[in-house]
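Annex B. Sample input.
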Amino acid sequence: MSEAKLISIFIQNLQIRVEDYLVEEITDMQKEIIDDATFIFKENIAGEIRSFGGSVKKNEEKFDQMIKEASEELKKEKYQDVKKILKDYLKHISELIIKSCVAIIPVKELPWEEVIFRTIPRLEVKEKVEFIDHPIAYYGEIKCVLGKTILFGKVKDSDPLFAPVMGNLDLGGYNIDDSLKGPKSHHYPYVSAILNSFDSVVTQNQLAKYHEDYQRHGDPICDFLMEDEDLLKVMEKVSSNLEFGRTSSDIVISSIALPIPTDKITLMIVSNESDSQDKYTQCFEAFLKFSAASCQAPSPPGAQEVQSSEVIRTPGGQEMKAWTAEELAEEAKKRLDAQPSMPTWTEEELSKFTEERGSGIPEGMEVWTEEELLNLAEKRRGGGLNIPEWKPDDDMLECQNCGYTLRPGWKKCPICDTPVNDDTKEETKEEVNSGDVQSEQPPNDNVKEEEDSGDEKGNSS
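Annex B, continued. Sample output.
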């Protein structure tokens, strides 16, 4: 077995649980750290800060037992080559506990109900043991559920990016107990497991896969966050091991948005590896921007918290003023009572006004009777001219074929050449007699007599 593997197994078997050594009586050093961490948003602090600091004395018996068992383990032959390094590691464990502190800060007018600050001291073993005490983290819960876990990190020689976790987050075998009461963010070992996952090769590969295989594009939430230039600028300021050269990997992760659908929240965590005094400002600003943007990011249907009709809250959980239907009606009545005095009418008065306005005729308007309107219509049908209807004379005939009026003496119709026969004359006479109209003898008889006399004269000659 390699030395690195042997050291890793030894440290894992120690099972150091920092939460077992946290107490409310913090040291001056721990108080100074918490004061620096809360100074940036002290105007938004809405209540008493609950502070906790690591103390070996709290569980001194358990600590001594852990060190004793670890020292006995080191006496084994297999640790001969790494015994010096591991003994040095055991000496720094007390310092690791003392430099651990947590603050739960109730806030107002921010995306969360509480901001939680913690230090992330750790012991790294390479050629020798190195104690790193400057990493910090801010985290809290926003009242919305993202569609998937989102990471933010950096790939060497590339721009930083947001990437989705395509599957479950690698928590190193840690399983949170769902029976535990209270916010998940208050469970120290759960948050520790999430922070440790940042260094997991499995987690880092999620960032690399989205960067290389998907060309940093395709996930709706990540696309939405990547379009926010202000967010990217702030997130990029957060330092990581990549800038300090304290990692052999080309990928680092500094932030995460982890949805917890059962609680209808998303846990937001931003860490900072910087050792400068500005690390608090940089980390909190990134935490604030990341949380606010995530509240506006696309979410799956039904993921958003269903607000009560009586209580409305902001994404951070602050209660907003709400009114019932009765209160709104009362408020409307008050506003009506405050209006200036204006005339009012009853329904009967309005009906009376309607009748008067409907039956009244404006002065000077021309009015026609029904008879006059009929005469006017008759004139319009005649083209607008008052021309008397033409009637044929009583002694005039009509063509039997086309009905054209024939003058006396015509033998045929000038229109259709139909001969004017005796039947036509007889019919005409009957029509005239039936109308008690006297008419002269048709000129056709005279013509016939003339023809007969002409024939006689011809015969005589």
